[in-house]
Amino acid sequence: MAEIVPTTAFVIGKKRGAEEEEDGGAGDQWALLPKRTTVGDPVAALASARHEFGEHGGVNMSIEASATFTVMEADTMRRMFSGELGPDRDFFIYSRHFNPTVLNLSRQMAAIEGTEAAYCTASGMSAISAVLIQLCGAGGHVVASGRLYGGTHALLSHFLPYACGIRATFVDIDDLEAVRAAVIEGETKVLYVETISNPTLAVANVPRLSEIAREKGVKLVADNTFAPMVLSPARLGADVVIHSVSKFISGGADIIAGAICGPASLVNSMMDLHKGALMLMGPTMNAKVAFEISERLPHLSLRMKEHCNRALVYATRMRKMGLKVIYPGLDDHPHHSLLASLSNPGYGFGGLVCLDMVTEERANKLMHHLQNTTQFGLMAVSLGYYETLMSCSGSSTSSEMSPEERAQAGISPGLVRMSVGYSGTVEQRWSQFERALSLLHPLPKQQQQQPV
């Protein structure tokens, strides 16, 4: 059982006016974070985070919709811009810098991931881009997993080299010696992985990779979009954890948002008025979006458990039918034991299942029947919705990769990625899947095996 470390009390920000009469050094906006967090249990950590009440005592926090903020004395603005006064003392400049509602959501995300600080952004890609630019600078080098979301792969292989000279070497992160050998002394700044890869569901050995990162003096950055609550990368050794909050954390397929969780020193540097990637590139989260997400966090753990439970049920039944299914919860998955050893208790093996129909044509036919004939799910990209979402990865979310890169990453032309939803009953949805599959005749040869 993970050790439970009690949290300490929060420092409540002092009121403006009284603070202006006091001397003090540079403020620390993360003083509102607990000095210690609940280790190993994201639900307990979130519950221990400060609850922000509404302006008039409401049980829900107020939405601070202002873009700019007033001061009571003219000299206060100078002190704010110099860093002498900050959000920890209830002084805010402009919502592209710090916004009270967004800052509160950021504290909640830091609690969930067990990091010292966090800040939330307008999208997952903006979070990834800002972190890489901040950590690498012009001409830096990244060692990255060869199994990444297509947009991240394009960012590393095309945009960042063109825009600021940041280069990437893609490696098989299962080969720890290859990872170690790819690090260029004095040039490599980041080791970048996805905890569970998109779309092939390969699992990163975060503890071992963090050992290499420390040995080589680089930062391990882990995208945990596929596994919130399931995995806690920072507790396993990652330096920075990134999320596309649009997915499981949001849960409603109605919000675009991202999050960066890591050391306060990193987040503060990214908000620096002169050299901060977040501050100066401006991927700002809207306060109304932050409020919406904050209201969904308390039931994230419940949703994740049901996503994962149904994914395991469907994957097990698919395999018994003789289908070629990829799911780390199955004992034939190469990373089954690894994920079991790293995951937080009670969350299973993730909410995504991949079904290899071999060809794109057969994948499209199956998805057509699943959506339009039996109403099992929806043909759409993204994940984490309460309905099952399906896409053929090679021609959609991984289309930025070349055919050779997709083959090397294990993405076949007929790979169907399913983000398993939780609407309806298990048996109702499974019956819909079976009926859709029955309309495909004959099955590919490799799927005509006896049930296992």
Automatic annotation (TrEMBL):
It comes from the Eukaryota. The keyword Manganese does not apply. Its cofactor is pyridoxal 5'-phosphate. GO terms for cellular component: cytoplasm. Keywords: Pyridoxal phosphate. GO terms for biological process: transsulfuration. GO terms for molecular function: carbon-sulfur lyase activity; pyridoxal phosphate binding. InterPro entries: Cys/Met-Metab_PyrdxlP-dep_enz (IPR000277). Belongs to the trans-sulfuration enzymes family. This is Methionine gamma-lyase. The lineage of its organism: Eukaryota, Viridiplantae, Streptophyta, Embryophyta, Tracheophyta.
